[in-house]
Amino acid sequence: MLFEVWAPRAGQVTLHAGGRAYAMERDPARAGWWRREAPGGDGTRYGFSLDGGPVRPDPRSRRQPDGPDGLSAVAGPGGFAWRHAWAGRELTGAVLYELHVGTFTREGTFDAAAARLPHLAGLGVTHVELMPVCPFPGTHGWGYEGVSLWAVHEPYGGPAGLARFVDAAHALGLGVVLDVVHNHLGPSGNHLPAFGPYFTDTHHTPWGAAVNLDAPGSDEVRAYLTGSALAWLRDYRLDGLRLDAVHALADNRPKHFLAELSGAVDALAARLGRPLFLIAESDLNDPATVTPRPAGGLGLHAQWNDDFHHALHTLLAGESQGYYADFAAGPAAALAKTLRGGFFHDGTHSSFRGRPWGRPLDPAATPAHRLVGYAQNHDQIGNRAQGDRLAARLSPGLLACAAALVLGGPFTPMLFMGEEWGARTPWQFFTDHTDPQLAEAVRTGRRREFAAHGWSADEIPDPQDPATRARSCLDWNEPEHEPHRSLLDWHRRLIALRRAEPDPGPLSATTADVDPGGTAVLRRGTLCTAVNPTAAPAALPLGTPRATEVLAAWHPVRLPGPDGVLHLPPASAAVLRCDGPAPERR
After folding, report:
1. In terms of C-beta distances under 8 Å and separation of at least 24 residues, what long-range contacts does 482-488 make, across chains too?
2. Fewer CB within 10 A of the terminal residue: the chain, N end or C end?
3. CB 129 within 8 Å of CB 97
4. Which residues belong to the annotated binding site?
5. Is 318 helix (H, G, I), strand (E, B) or coil?
6. Does 239 or 544 have the greater pLDDT score?
7. Where are the alpha helices (DSSP H) in 9-157?
8. What confidence score (pLDDT) does residue 181 get?
9. DSSP string, 135-147
10. 10: part of which helix (H) or strand (E)?
11. What residues have CB less than 8 Å from 9, skipping those under 6 apart?
């Protein structure tokens, strides 16, 4: 078989495969590339030695059976016997469910997670969004310090395990989205710098030198990242990718890497004949992220909307520290602004950043599904000092209000695993670094970070303690008991109602009236979602069109009388059917 590697700085490259060494030759057609035919097949262990140095794993390795520092193994899903045909599921009309393989079950494997997929199909979500699955040191971790960007974490089940999971999801009609990290690699097990200029000091990120997207050698680095993305979508039959922190992808070339990537993904979708999409995590609040390429944008298909989360969180939880400060000054107004215009910071001053931030979206021209809305996600839970969920401090009624605003709102909704039943288990920051010095640096750094906010060291979970990961695993017995059972049923009903309603189109098609006290009325198509997160009964004027049916209610409510006023109990929500389309936006 043919072995290839890009190593432009090497004077000599040796392939070690199947216990033998082979001198590699320069590829005359591709500068910096080396190649060699050698015996090999599925499972063959191999690596490359540069100029007589240590044998390192293949940067494009598809499998690392012994972890990031071990030899690579020939592997690939090409030999997987797919059982279920898959035509794809597009993002329009989607309900996403973010899942971490290592804590979705106690076993922490793809196969154990696949066994729980019928729960998600019954819930009504359309896509499972897997947190990163690239190899990282040890067994347990979040996955954002992965290396080997073409490979699959072996303790989860490796490439075959991922393929089995995707096939099982497709059997139930569920699409699969994968979170990928292009903006940095983990500090341990990262061998890319030995092979070539994968990183550059031209730009700096919170993780150090930036990935090289615009300095000399960047053509191959861009091809490496694009090739990895296409391989996930093509070879594992995925429906989309979530791109981590794209604001950290520094690129001054005339065509931004993200536009190049989105073009390649759209071209692959056309070749495969099924929809594919990219969802960005972006801190920039820049409409260009989701603006189509022909209109001058980057062409990504959606982005996470943290502004909506922050407004909702401050309204329900009352927190005002850090980046919540701007939203806490007027949480109801902040929520109204995000529901109507997408971004809260759209050129306004951000006290957290100390300067103006963001640019406005055009609600009439922006499809609502291009923004992903959520009350919780892995970052907003796990980056808290103790990894506590909303259920740790909000009543079931307020959790029901959060669900109604997420699932009744204009954006593509996303749930974080266990949110659908109000899971009380925390989701904490945990690692399993095998380097003792790195492990201690992470432990002390975490404690130092939260000490600045008044937490004592003994209150911060030790990331390296196996008990921290164990506490973060979902308790699948919870849904059998109240109030979890009722919350699960509530989420099922809201999701079913959302999916039964045709996509309304642009952001402006959903109207949102939010009272200064926090009560809200959303109109999306023929659905009217009313929310009362206050501690007192509320009278909410629904106006026109007239409500004709109560479709779901956290506490029993009656249809409005001739005055069109809905009387809603404290900490509750309801969804009603209204005759005709929503009124013009106010």
Report:
1. 483/396, 483/422, 484/421, 484/422, 484/423, 485/421, 486/396, 487/396, 487/399, 487/400, 487/403, 487/420, 487/421, 487/422, 488/123, 488/420, 488/421
2. C
3. yes
4. 242-247, 306-310, 378-383
5. coil
6. 239
7. 101-104, 110-114, 117-123
8. 97
9. --SSS---STT--
10. none
11. 196, 197
Tell me the per-residue pLDDT of 546-583, one tens digit each, with 9 for 90 and over: 899 999 999 999 999 999 999 999 999 999 999 755 54
Residues placed in the known binding site for substrate: 242-247, 306-310, 378-383
Cα dihedral 475, 491, 384, 145 in deg (nearest 10): 80
- Side-chain half-sphere of 397: how many Cα atoms within 13 Å? 15
Position 208 confidence tier, pLDDT thresholds 50, 70, 90: confident
Q: Which long-range contacts (CB under 8 A, 24 or more apart) does 453-458 make?
A: 453/321, 453/385, 455/385
Note the pLDDT of residue 5. Answer: 98
List residues with catalytic annotation.
244, 281
From residue 567, alpha-carbon distances to 395, 416, 544, 556, 574 in Å are 20, 31, 16, 10, 10
pLDDT above 90 (res 453) = no
Distances (CA, A) of 146 to 203, 257, 431: 21, 21, 12
Of 141, 218, 211, nearest in space to 182 by CA:
211
Query: 234: which residues sit within 8 A by CB, 6+ positions away?
Result: 268, 272
The pLDDT of residue 136 is above 70: yes
